[in-house]
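Predict structure. Input: Protein-export membrane protein SecG, 146 residues.
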Amino acid sequence: MNVLLTIVLAVQMLTAPGMIGLILVQHGKGADMGAAFGSGSSGSLFGASGSANFLSRTTGILAAVFFACTLLLAYFGNARPAGSGSVLERAGIPAPAASAPAVPVGPAGQIPGGATSVPAPQGPATSPGTGAPAVPASGAGAIPTK
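Output follows.
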C-alpha cells in the first residue's frame, strides 16, 4: 500500500510540471488570427495544422492523469484502519502517570502556589481565622496587584 501511494504521488508530481509547461507553450486564441493572414505557421515543427491539436490533446491527457492521481490520493488518505478512532477520541485517553510530585490537574495546577490544597469554605460566608481565603475558580486571585 505504501509503495502504491509513493508511485501515485510521483506520477502526480511529474504530471503537474508537464501540464504547466504545456500550458505555457500553447498560443492563445488571438494568435490563430495571425496565422489566417499568412503568418507562416505552416512550416512549424508540428506540421501544417499547427501545434494546437498536439499540445491541447497532450494537456488534456495530462490533466486527466493528474485528476485521477488526486482522487486516488484523497481516497487512500481518508482510508483508516478499522480500530482507529477520530483525533478527538484519542485525545480523551489519559497519559500514564509520571513519578513527579503530585500536582493538582486542572487550572489550580497551572497557578503558581496553587499546588497547595486549600480547605473548602464551610458555608456561604467563612468565619475569619478558619483557614486560607477561598481562591476564585478563574484564578484571578493569584494575580499579584500593586
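The chain has a mean pLDDT of 72.
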